[in-house]
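Q: What does the assembly look like in three dimensions?
Context provided by user:
Components: two
Sequences:
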Amino acid sequence: MDVPEEAVPRQTMDVDIACVGFGPAAGGFLTTLAKKLQAAGETPLESKVMPGMPLQVVCYERADDIGFGVSGVVTRARGIRESFPELNPAEIPMAAEVAEEKVLYLLDPGGASRRPFAMRAADKLIRAFRFALKYEEQAVELPYTPEFLHKMDGLVLSIGQFNQWVGQQLMMTGAVQVWPGSPVAEPLIEDEKVVGVRLVDQGVEKDGTPTGAFLPGMDVKAALTVVADGPVGPIGRKLDERFGMPENHTKHEWAVGMKFVVDLPEGVDLKPGTVFHTIGYPEPEIFGFFYVHPDRIASVGIFVPSWFDNPVRTAYRYLQHYIQHPYLWRYLKGGRLRSWGAKSLQESGLQGEPRLAGDGYARIGEGSGSTNVLTGSGVDEAWATGVQLAEGVVDLLARGKPFTRKNLEDAYVARRRASWVEQEGRVAERARDGFQRGVIPGLLGMGLTGLSGGRLAAPGKPRAPHERIGKIEDFFSDRLRSEDVAAVKEECARKGKALHDALMERCGWPPIEYDGDLLVSQQDALLLGGKVQAPAGVADHVVFLYPNLCDTCGTRICVEICSGEAIYPGEGNAPDFDREKCVHCGACIWNCSENNIRFEAGAGGLHSAEN
Amino acid sequence: MSAFHIVVCGGIVPDPLQTLEPISGPQGPALKNEMMLPSVLDPWASHALYEAANLAKNAPDSKIWLVSLSPKAKLQQVMMRVAQKVPFELVAIEGPASGFTDSVEVAGALAEAIEGIAGLDRERLLLFGGWESASRGSGSTMQLVGERLGVRNQFQGVDVLEVQENGSFRILERVEGGMHQVSRCAGAPALLGWATGSLPEPPNQPQLGMQNMRLIMPALQRARPAGLTGGGIEFLSASLPKQQRETRVVKDLSPEKIAREVVDWIKG
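A: Here is the predicted structure of the complete assembly.
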């Protein structure tokens, strides 16, 4: 917001650099900056706000702990290893070097998956000729996978543990401060320049009304604000609204990634570092992964993309079917759920890159479009952009130059443009356009782009997710009569439930037989796995702006896609929101057909550090 | 109200709802992947700290120290939350926080650290802590600390401390049946093992956090090992209680209906 005169006095604090969000990007930025700040023999960089003291660098992280991040993840870790040349994966809990990697096409064991004709034909051929293929348990290992998909020299990580480890390294230096439980409400803007951030108000009711314990969020003024708040971070989005996106850049392509972390049962002896990438099941549009960590722990998850045009698309139910695919279930059956989490992925890549720098601010990480949408790699790229910004910042500080847009473009953006992140991002830029026309064109397009080094791509113009979604009745018309759909809608409305489970079961998906250990209800996953919590005293961070608009939304896809069932059918026009179930994945905002959801940085969310 | 020197003792514990798994390690029993678990300041000790801050706010020139025996690396992370809540100085002792320690040894280490606090006025001393810890729950550590330091006025299960006009204390201690015993004490020095107290968790104050961290960081660097040897205790086994879990999240049932459902489920 622009800084007006305030009726309620707020505390103000001055720092040199304020960061928003602590993830891989901020980790790369702060690690590089801390090293430079402590480099022996170099002139220390002095604080301008506290003369005589070192540079005052603070990072505000919304989640209650820096380890509450979510990501797959398998990464080539080039940028990370460059920052930590002596990196020993054994120092990071749950880390393992990639030992074995497979790309698997999963057939449909039950017949419920909605497969295009080409896939059904392929499935028949595979079954017929399975003896000549690397076929096992209703899956076939692809005989050739392109170089661009492999992570064979990389690491399997828990992002939560990685963040904790990086945070510990940083805090031991004493050079920077990382404050968890500190959501940032908005950027502070004066004369079109970002001058810092405002933290969220505390001591308010759910609707934001101050109580007797009201404490206005502090204004943190900084010469440089580093925005590293991820793909759905409110500060990044507010900057996009305020300063606009570059011409022809849009963030139309998204996915929800959801994963379980599982204790594998006794007797499963998969090597740590085993990696499976899967396609084909539970739906052709849904890609999956299975990574093995040390101590018989595995991460298993799926991505539900925005070009999966199911009006009741959802993640949790599909994830439960995914893990029960025979190829995976032989390793997972009898296992125990340790952890669960979900996040949105910004999959527009360079097509969705925002303005990377402006007067007083710079953007890094996934929210800045750094994810490589061909290789499906984001963590290392995010880290690298943080390193690039830190190098630029140190350069500017050493030369006494201010953090103007021009200077940041010269010092940071230029570095980024010259780096492997950009080069590989350019190759990937149109890799996923084919998915706009279907999964087969999309896969062919990825192959085409990857093999041609980005020179060729399948055609397809990304559309906003809501522009793709049709009526529920139309989507299910090949399997259900409209009166069947109407009956399901009525029953679910009466029970106050989302539609996806009932519709999926009507289409042949078997009910989930809970075992209380790995196959659990979504509510149990929240409590057992995500340990989701939300503190009192702050306003709800998901707000339906104009409830009447929700009446015109035919699908209420926000209810279906909500990772934690935090958004559920309500009594009034708009769905209801229960923040004690929200994991802040942000899927609601890119699924809303009316742009009717305000998604802020709230406190709480996941309390598991193993995702 | 005259000033107090309030020393709060508190370790760190895994964040509530984390899944704990006792294992046998080379150095005895431990929690599996303890260093992976996100941690918080012991909830009982947290209440004690907030009560200390409230008391200090009303008694000018009071000082608060937090004495914590914990793994340094995890303690540092915990401090990034706690430091934003209330003003205090940290006295850190490096040691395990798993709960598989001997409370006599822990109390000894805490008492020694407290004795080493420069400028501590024993006549104004209030020893605060949780009436038990969330890690072990022996309910004996604070009592032992008090005994080591010669603090004989001890109160446990405290929810309220009121300083009277004449400087004496009126203290409410929990007893059976959801009741409180009203105790009176002439004044400091005294030891209070807090239950939940009566204050909400304070909001985060980033400015306060930064002020606190200026002293917390050097304190962490100075942390000496506790040198715990196990106290001659041999843990024969450690296990989690068996649990059967069924979850139903409701928002509109009365407490009576919920209670009836729970009773039926237990009996069923």
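Follow-up: Chain A touches chain B through 50 residues (CB under 8 Å).
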